[in-house]
Amino acid sequence: MTDAPPLCLTVAGSDSGGGAGIQADLKTMLALGVHGMSVVTAVTAQNSLGVQGVWELPAEAVKAQYRAVVDDIGVHAVKTGMLASTALVETVAELLAATSAPAVVDPVGVSKHGDALLAASALDAVRKELLPRATVATPNLDEVAQLTGVVVESEDDMRRAADAVLAYGPQWALIKGGHLAAHGNQAADLLTDGDTLLWLRAPRHGNRHTHGTGCTLASALAAGLAKGQDVPQAAMEAKEYVSGALAAGFALGAGIGPVDHAWQWNR
Q1: CB 147 within 8 A of CB 108
Q2: The one catalytic residue among 13, 213, 224, 249
């Protein structure tokens, strides 16, 4: 009988176009050798052009999914994504508090196309309830500005942003700097716990098909933690995986296509 692989749970919204959300998370987890499980927090009508609709699930449904998975199957790492509302943020924070596995919190605020995926009224709950439960918080630059007010225009600003995020209580902050224009052909992310400072750099790719990048990085990081890696190792391997997926991103529909989660198999 084959031993079960490491277990990783995504708590996030569904992307009907398959590029981001739980779909991206599960593809990433499969590609990286862990068993992916899911708690759906919201359903979106979404494609390459944007988000046409969002339907939030009741907090009781989210809690029931989580308990069904964790109490029976178990979990080695949890990744959170789109949580949509104060009620869901508070519910998931409470669930994480009772779970011993490491947690990657991706504080999803807007989609790739600029569509709001988190109510403004929920930001305070993210700061006070969710971020303190995170092993690693992984905001992008827009989410940093939403949460902390720090506007990042340089790598020095990324250091200030990381400090501001850490002040809310996560053990580590991974500031995703892919939208930063600095260093032209280099995409830089910053990982820090306040003492260790690790820059994760990879070549920029001209490929415009980048939908799901943030979800993919966070779930790749969670997959590494599920396999027992420490945070720096998991982050470095996640960056390498995402860089390959970005380079292989492909056209889908009339807008922004997804990264290629199966790039390692398709090359």
Answers
A1: no
A2: 213
